[in-house]
Design goal:
This protein has 335 residues and is mostly helical. Helices cover 73% and strands 0% of the residues. It has 2 domains: 72 residues, no CATH class; 239 residues, MetI-like (MetI-like fold, Orthogonal Bundle).
Length: 335
């Protein structure tokens, strides 16, 4: 991808985020319900209510509120959470690492697991194993991530209590971290017992998020590999005596990875959205779990910050996917 293409996408990202900000701000102001009414005690006076409206900037017209919010946001001030009484930006930065570690671990599981099964299915084509893989993969495609989460809780949390069912880390071990990237920090600092504890808390949510992604990758990559195996360059390599495994991995895979990469990026953005429910089921302290609490409490500043954060994540992922697509497909470099 050329520098001009990157700059164009960056400009589009800014416009997209602005559009998201306008839409979410407007929708939150027209839906029924008063966030101040959820904060006041039964004996609060009209003066107390008015003071709260002034404090959170809800006493002005919607255009004025939006202008003030945009001005403060550009200065790095995303407002104060109504329900948690803390800076929205600090809350996002505190919770975001947990969601990112969870999402990228699920992505790693999906890519490695899905890629290996797709290669195995390609090697096993025209054998009884091929339709069996298709049937099982169809089953995995049909089950959404939150259903996998419930199944895993029942099987690995209740029936066979192998892994912790909630949280991110044992509370007695949660001290002494320099960052909020617990998994990465514990690994880099060689605290392996701590790393194992964090990983055990992640197993079930990672499986819940990663299994549907792996199923999508299996289907897409298997079809792309099957088409690539019919090409002339593969037939020529076969005539030269190349083994079937080398044909799939060395010849077919590099030409099949392009469409798979694009779809994986799209599915990864959906998976980020899926963390909202999965984190709630496992009481995982990420931005997804916090988003549900923000909606329940009608915490307008926090909801706005969360939506913008999700929007920024989606845009960054799409830009990265475009750049990787250009890397694996030379014809896209100047697109």
């Amino acid at each position: 991808m050329s520098l001009t293409g990157i700059l164009n996408r960056a400009a589009m990202a800014v416009v997209t985020l602005l559009g998201v900000a306008v839409i979410v701000f407007g929708l939150l102001r027209i839906v029924p319900g008063d966030p101040i009414a959820m904060m006041i005690s039964p004996g609060a006076s009209a003066a107390d209510i008015a003071a709260l409206r002034v404090r959170y900037g809800l006493d002005s017209s919607i255009p004025v509120q939006f202008g003030v919010w945009m001005r403060d946001m550009l200065a790095g001030d995303f407002g104060t959470s109504i329900s948690l009484k803390r800076s929205v930006l600090s809350l996002l930065l505190e919770r975001l690492p947990a969601t990112l570690e969870l999402a990228f671990a699920a992505l790693l599981l999906g890519v490695l697991g899905g890629g290996l099964i797709a290669i195995l299915a390609t090697l096993a084509r025209r054998t009884p194993l091929d339709p069996l893989i298709d049937v099982l993969n169809g089953l995995f495609l049909a089950v959404p991530d939150f259903v996998w989460a419930l199944i895993l809780v029942l099987v690995l949390g209740v029936a066979f209590p192998v892994f912790p069912m909630s949280g991110r880390i044992d509370p007695s071990l949660s001290q002494g971290f320099a960052t909020n990237f617990y998994l990465i920090e514990s690994l880099l600092t060689l605290r392996f017992p701590l790393f194992a504890d964090i990983l055990s808390h992640m197993v079930m949510p990672v499986l819940a998020l990663g299994l549907p992604l792996a199923a999508v990758i299996v289907r897409t990559l298997k079809e792309a590999l099957s088409e690539a195996m019919l090409q002339d360059y593969v037939a020529l390599a076969r005539l030269k005596g190349m083994s079937e495994l080398r044909l799939v991995v060395q010849e077919a895979l590099r030409n099949a990875i392009g469409p798979t990469l694009t779809l994986t990026g799209v599915q990864f953005t959906f998976m980020i959205g899926g963390t909202v429910i999965v984190e709630r089921i496992f009481s995982y302290p990420g931005i997804g779990n916090m988003a549900i609490d923000a909606v329940i409490n009608r915490d307008l500043p926090l909801i706005q910050g969360l939506v913008l954060m999700f929007g920024l994540i989606f845009i960054v992922i799409n830009i990265i996917v475009d750049m990787l697509g250009a890397l694996f497909n030379p014809r896209m470099k100047h697109g």
